[in-house]
Amino acid sequence: MNAVFAQSEKFNLERPEDRHRHMPLFWHSEELSLIRFSSWENKYSPDNSFYFRSPYIERFWLGILGPSATWLLRIVLAEIEQRDAPISFTSAILASRVGLADNTSWNSPLSRSIRRLIDFKIAKQSGAGHVSVSKYIPPLSLRQIGVLTADEKILHSRYLDRLNNGQNSNDSNLEICNHNFKDI
Question: pLDDT per residue over 11-67, tens digit each?
């Protein structure tokens, strides 16, 4: 198998945040592009972050990551969790599951979705064709909260206040995420 990779000169290999951009994401043969996904044990834990299935991810991270990257995150981690082992997908199957075009170019929708997870440090590239994904996602940063609408900022603040006051996140997540804004 030959690794095929298109790279751009606009990235600087000296910058750590750009190094992953210069690694081949896909391994190609004539009919097959495989991407291997595994779980990433990083600094996030249940004590300081949200499980990938949490409604918090859908309610607050969706607008930051985008729908394709959020759906990709859920699909990949659900498969890893179900098998309790790393999983490999062909780009065609994964793109189809996410609802994207099957294309392995640098700027394909699937590549962009994977890069968004990497850019937001929810995933990391662990080698050519291998991506590690965190099951636990941090709360939004202050900068990310800044792009929320006024109503979403209030909702986010109330959500975190309830969690900080000892309410079980599993009990309050759904209520907060389905909250009627007229009541705010």
Answer: 344 444 554 554 555 544 434 478 899 999 877 777 778 999 988 998 999 999 999
Contact 91, 26 (CB under 8 A): yes
Q: Phi and psi at residue 46, in whole multiples of 5°?
A: -60, -25
Map out the domains of the chain as residue ranges. 11-137, 142-183
CB burial readout 48-64, b (16+ within 10 A) else e: ebbbbebbbbebbbeeb
Three-class SS string for the chain?
CEECCCCCCCCCCCCHHHHHHHCCCCEECCCCEEEEEEEECCCCCCCCCEECCCHHHHHHHHHHHCHHHHHHHHHHHHHHHHHCCCEEEEHHHHHHHHCCCCCCCCCCHHHHHHHHHHHCCCEEEEECCEEEEECEECCCCHHHHCCCCHHHHHHHHHHHHHHHCCCCHHHHHHHHHCCCHHHC
What is the crossing angle of helices 67-83 and 91-98, to 10°?
120
Q: Rounded to 5 degrees, what angle do the CA atoms 89, 111, 91 make?
A: 25
Reported pTM: 0.74
| Chain centroid to CA 22 | 19
Nearest-angstrom CA–CA distance, 71 and 97? 9
